[in-house]
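> call design_seq(struct)
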């Protein structure tokens, strides 16, 4: 009996010693971050100093002393020296391929006048062969230093004469920064059979001067008259050439995203052919960041037949997910395309327009509900938002899980106050863009008037106060992809001149941080894997040069991403 007890005692002691050995020397991590200020966005452990990563997952979070136990001979150690660590930013609404495309065409973002636009095209013409298309993006007449004036100016933009004069042998198409209008020169319009007598297409407007002449400005769906011709001329290239261009666009978009700390990108959205290309890159292990893709540019009939085949969740080592549909009901406020309940203050003859019909959106709602897809609908004007809420409400009838389907309204920029509570009641996510509010602020009063702007424009606080989840983003390339800029706009709510823009609608800094991390993970059904620095989640992390939670407001815009980690791999270092 004594020997038996001694044996059991020895076994117990051995077990305790083995357990202590395991606790004192855990399996080494591949990457360890130490001596940082870690905002985990995890309520169970809000703050930490260090993180250990093994493979593509987080294995420990805590103090530097606790995490040094995970350092082995092969561990890469990054001494953060007090830098700010947070979950990787998740861009909730952007246009991924278009972002890559903008890196390969004429950038008009910094033009400050019509003359600047014409000057940029003149340079491009001098560098292009006759007949070559010149494509640009990023101009915005409301952001010019002085408004264009003269008898040929319509909607703040001169007629095409000066542009056409310097580009007689090159078709030109220049997309507005909002993505909801474009400008064509005479040759591009001629090649597109677009003239003074061309009727407006459904959901679009060919802007004309007082004499009925087409000015070159094409609002909403009207720009497709030119873009379709341009794409047709480019489609004659070889399959190899088209693939190389697509691949380049994907990589350029990823480089830009990673440089801003973005580790997951909600693409709003892509057609089946584009998704085929992304899947091929995922198979090759060549998608640098994680994509959550919304299906767009497909008919309801095509989607009904093919959604099941294209549904992907965490494909390619959690780099590609396709489980959402994107529809677009109206246009943008800046281009007078947002669909309003009452006429525009500065264009009393118009209440905006529908880009797609309510019937088309309702058809997509039925398909999405039947096949378990998320539906994300662009709605900016108060009428558009109300109509989408009505469509969603009808789709949820008889579905007890309706308020758990996480359907979204993209932008939700201008709401009637009566519809705020409906977002919460229906469980609708508001996928908004903080930077849009302060970027648009200088001309919102002109579009809506003081009363409507005060009661309905960019109601972040009103929505949050009734329990609505807000997913933050930039709508890149409409705005720069910088989450820091949108974070700053969300918490400060000032336009570029420093004037407050309905400051009672501001977010707190923690609310803004959550809106760019865990909220966006939730908006993509991915909160179990992303959105916080939590043991077991994917090691997607951004490291910044200053603490977004504590630095003075005026220092926030200068915050820079110094390192971006995706799946435990350092994919971006500042200066490299």
């Amino acid at each position: 009996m004594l020997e038996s007890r001694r044996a059991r005692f020895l076994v117990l002691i051995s077990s305790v010693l083995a357990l202590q050995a395991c606790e004192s020397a855990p399996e080494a991590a591949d990457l360890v971050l130490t001596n940082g200020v870690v905002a985990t966005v995890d309520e169970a452990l809000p703050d930490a100093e260090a993180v250990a990563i093994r493979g593509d997952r987080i294995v420990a979070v805590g103090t530097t002393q606790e995490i040094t136990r995970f350092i082995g001979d092969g561990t890469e150690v990054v001494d953060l020296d007090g830098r700010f660590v947070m979950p990787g930013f998740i861009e909730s609404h952007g246009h991924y391929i278009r972002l890559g495309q903008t890196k390969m065409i004429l950038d008009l973002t910094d033009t400050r006048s019509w003359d600047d636009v014409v000057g940029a095209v003149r340079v491009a013409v001098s560098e292009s062969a006759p007949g070559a298309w010149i494509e640009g993006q990023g101009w915005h007449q409301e952001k010019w230093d002085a408004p264009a004036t003269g008898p040929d100016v319509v909607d703040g933009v001169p007629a095409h004469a000066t542009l056409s004069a310097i580009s007689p042998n090159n078709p030109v198409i220049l997309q507005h920064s909002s993505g909801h209008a474009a400008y064509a020169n005479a040759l591009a319009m001629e090649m597109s059979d677009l003239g003074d007598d061309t009727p407006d297409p459904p959901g679009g407007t060919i802007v004309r001067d007082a004499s009925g002449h087409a000015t070159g400005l094409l609002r909403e769906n009207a720009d497709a008259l030119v873009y379709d011709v341009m794409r047709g001329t480019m489609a004659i290239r070889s399959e190899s050439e088209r693939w190389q261009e697509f691949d380049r666009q994907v990589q350029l978009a990823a480089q830009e995203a990673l440089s801003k700390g973005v580790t997951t990108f909600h693409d709003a959205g892509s057609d089946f052919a584009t998704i085929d290309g992304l899947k091929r890159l995922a198979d090759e292990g060549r998608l640098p960041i994680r994509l959550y893709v919304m299906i767009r540019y497909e008919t309801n009939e095509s989607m009904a037949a093919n959604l099941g085949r294209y549904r992907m969740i965490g494909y390619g080592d959690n780099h590609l997910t396709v489980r959402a549909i994107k529809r677009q009901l109206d246009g943008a406020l800046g281009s007078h395309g947002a669909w309003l309940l009452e006429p525009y203050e500065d264009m009393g003859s118009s209440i905006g327009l529908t880009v797609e019909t309510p019937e088309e959106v309702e058809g997509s709602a039925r398909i999405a509900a039947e096949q378990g897809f998320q539906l994300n609908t662009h709605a900016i004007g108060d009428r558009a938002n109300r109509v989408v809420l009505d469509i969603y409400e009808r789709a949820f009838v008889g579905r007890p899980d309706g308020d758990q389907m996480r359907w979204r309204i993209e932008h939700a920029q201008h709401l009637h106050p009566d519809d705020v509570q409906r977002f919460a009641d229906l469980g609708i996510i508001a996928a908004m863009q903080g930077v849009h509010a302060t970027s648009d602020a200088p001309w919102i009063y002109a579009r809506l008037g003081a009363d409507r702007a005060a009661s309905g424009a960019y109601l972040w606080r009103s929505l949050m106060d009734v329990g609505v989840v807000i997913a933050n983003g930039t709508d890149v390339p409409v705005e720069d992809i910088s989450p820091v800029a949108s974070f700053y706009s969300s918490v400060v709510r000032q336009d570029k001149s420093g004037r407050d823009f309905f400051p009672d609608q501001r977010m707190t800094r923690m609310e803004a941080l959550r809106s760019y991390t865990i909220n966006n993970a939730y908006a993509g059904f991915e909160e179990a894997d992303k959105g916080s620095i939590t043991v077991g989640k994917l090691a997607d992390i951004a490291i910044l040069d200053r603490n977004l939670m504590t630095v003075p407001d005026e220092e926030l815009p200068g915050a820079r991403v110094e390192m971006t980690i995706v799946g435990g791999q350092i994919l971006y270092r500042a200066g490299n």
